[in-house]
Specification:
With 116 residues, the chain is an all-alpha fold. Helix content is 59%, strand content 0%. The two termini are 42 Å apart.
């Protein structure tokens, strides 16, 4: 249930966390929930002040991205990097090999665009 909080409206995440914690019954799950609260939501201490989380809700919440079709991961970029590394064939190319590879990649993109 904790991953579902990533798709809840950001302003409701703090309100929904206690409901999620209630559904957890194992002690290890409760430890995970406390870690999640400290790291991603921020804990309210006895004095009533809210401690800032390590990662703010706006950074990890995908509520607004999903309806707009914005990807949640960078898998497409990782795929391009992997293909590019295979094409270039080395980790540190000299400038000429880099230029030739970029030109080859540009031709490939143009061919793909012409076919659509």
């Amino acid at each position: 249930m904790l991953p579902a909080l990533a798709f809840a409206p950001p302003l409701e995440v703090q309100e929904l966390l206690p409901q999620v914690i209630e559904q957890l019954d194992m002690p290890a799950s409760l430890e995970l929930a406390l870690y999640f609260e400290n790291t991603y939501i921020g804990r309210t201490v006895a004095s009533g002040t809210q401690l800032a989380p390590l990662f703010p809700i706006e950074m990890w919440n995908h509520h607004h991205a999903v309806p707009q079709g914005i990807p949640r991961t960078n898998n497409a970029i990782e795929t391009w990097h992997r293909a590019y590394n295979v094409t270039i064939g080395c980790h540190h190319p000299n400038i000429w090999k880099l230029i030739i590879t970029i030109k080859r990649e540009q031709r490939l993109v143009e061919v793909k665009q012409d076919n659509f």
